[in-house]
Amino acid sequence: MVLIAFLIAHGLVHVAIWAPKYDPVKAPFDPSHSWLIGDRRPLARFLAFSATAILMVARSALWADAGWWRPTAVAGLIVS
Predict the structure, then answer these.
(1) CB distance 13 to 52 below 8 Å
(2) Fewer CB near the last or first residue (10 Å), C or N of the chain?
(3) What is the pLDDT of residues 18-41, one digit of tens each?
């Protein structure tokens, strides 16, 4: 149950960081610049949302006790 909560939380953190429009007054850091891919915000958002989707699939597989949840979770964490 804790691992399911972790997968959900990890995926939602990506959405919380990358979904809102960047406001320099409210944001504690600049999410428009990625340490890995530079100033490519659209690509960074795509990867963040993809990671969220993959982690949600892994969570569902874990909940259903499917054996393929581990490689799916690893793929989501790699994209993350």
Answers:
(1) no
(2) N
(3) 777 766 676 666 666 667 777 777
What is the C-alpha separation between 31 and 19, in angstroms, rounded?
10
Residues 6+ apart with CB under 8 A from 80: 10, 14, 48, 51, 55
**Ramachandran category for residue 30: left, alpha or beta (phi over 0 → left; psi -120 to 50 → alpha):** beta
Count of helix runs (H) and strand runs (E) in the chain: 3, 0
Q: How many CA atoms lie within 13 A of 71 on its CB side?
A: 3
Please choose, from the candidates 42, 37, 80, the residue with its C-alpha nearest in 3D space to the C-alpha of residue 7.
80
Q: C-alpha 33: how far from its chain's center?
A: 16
Nearby residues of 68 by Cβ (< 8 Å), 6 or more positions away: 61
